[in-house]
Amino acid sequence: GSTIGILGGGQLGRMIAVAAAQLGYRTHIYAPEESGPAADVSPRWTRGAYEDAAALAAFADGVDVVTYEFENIDPSAVDVLSTHGLVRPGAEALRIAQDRLLEKRFVSDLGGTTAPFAPVESLDELEEAIDDIGSRAILKTRRMGYDGKGQVRLSEPGDAVGAWNAIARQSAILEGFVTFEEEFSVILARGADGEVRFWDSAANVHEDGILATSTVPAGGRIAEQVEEARTLARKVADALGYVGVLTLEFFASAEGPVFNEMAPRVHNSGHWTIEGAVTSQFENHVRAICGLPLGDAGLAAPGAHMRNLIGAQANEWQAILADPANHLHLYGKHEARAGRKMGHVTRLVL
Ligand code: ATP
Ligand code: MG
Ligand code: MG
């Protein structure tokens, strides 16, 4: 049996490890924490810093392929891994997807539409960017943001100082505020041979900056815009020589799909695929990185609805299980801190 190395030990790593086990692979987690959601299902766990080149090299030497569930890893760490083994997706995908400025430039160079954006390295540059883009805008740190963290909304020019301080004066981009009706994601798997398969695009609803629900099939504007968004997503994947699952988030605007951000990995808006698709995003990620043929990404039911269990919402698990139509997933996290993703529940439309 072969071993898959996974950087990061959270719930995405846990669900990758479950899919890997089903296909007969062992997994080995590398993460800075002592333990995490993936520890329950992965036979090996190495605690180490993402900056520790020697430890990363030893980790890569001991596995057959390295992948990641967390993109905020220093690209130099991925370069170390790449000299000691096969890393899928590769270092270039990681370098671009972990930096909002690079990802927006990359996608707009490939012909995608993004919100107007400008790099911000100082308060002066923020004020210039507001002059160009307008004050209805969002200031986002270039790196490390997730679940709406590391971003501040502006509404008037006088908001500049407060916003700049609120993100602790880090390298950032200012984005014009996009008026949209709905949000959706394109999730694809690209095999080692370049074959691409798309899952149905879910309509995603966020609450307090955190994904709340994903629903397929999406109707209306999303259904009209999916083809254009897929064409762009395929271009991105091909340009990166991507192997594995790739996610692009879009706003469905009156002018067409507007690219928001990408994730070089399996994605929360694809959790419905565990029950709702013929092959889940986790299984196809494992198949892709292991050089196996991809499974069918089509719907396994007429529709599916996924709801995240955030913080104390997970305490309702018994009530959720009382309805036999619900598929409950808990991530084994001990502390139900506010805003923390504790699990999710999926219902199929039958
Ligand atoms: P994720 O958890 O998806 O990684 P994130 O912290 O990386 O989130 P974004 O996806 O960039 O942040 O933004 C979070 C949400 O804020 C978006 O899903 C969208 O609802 C809203 N948003 C972000 N950028 C814009 C924009 N330019 N115009 C309007 N709304 C936006
Ligand atoms: Mg993000
Ligand atoms: Mg997002």
From TrEMBL:
Enzyme Commission number(s): 6.3.4.18
InterPro entries assigned: ATP-grasp, ATP-grasp_carboxylate-amine, ATP_grasp_subdomain_1, PreATP-grasp_dom_sf, PurK, PurK_C, PurT/PurK_preATP-grasp, Rudment_hybrid_motif
Pathway(s) the chain acts in: Purine metabolism; IMP biosynthesis via de novo pathway; 5-amino-1-(5-phospho-D-ribosyl)imidazole-4-carboxylate from 5-amino-1-(5-phospho-D-ribosyl)imidazole (N5-CAIR route): step 1/2
Residue sites binding ATP per the record: 100, 140, 145-151, 175-178, 183, 206, 260-261
GO terms of molecular function: 5-(carboxyamino)imidazole ribonucleotide synthase activity; ATP binding; metal ion binding; phosphoribosylaminoimidazole carboxylase activity
Coiled coil segments of this chain: none
Domain ATP-grasp: 104-290
Function: Catalyzes the ATP-dependent conversion of 5-aminoimidazole ribonucleotide (AIR) and HCO(3)- to N5-carboxyaminoimidazole ribonucleotide (N5-CAIR). Catalyzes the ATP-dependent conversion of 5-aminoimidazole ribonucleotide (AIR) and HCO(3)(-) to N5-carboxyaminoimidazole ribonucleotide (N5-CAIR).
Assembly description: Homodimer.
Protein name as catalogued: N5-carboxyaminoimidazole ribonucleotide synthase
Species, as recorded: Sphingobium ummariense RL-3
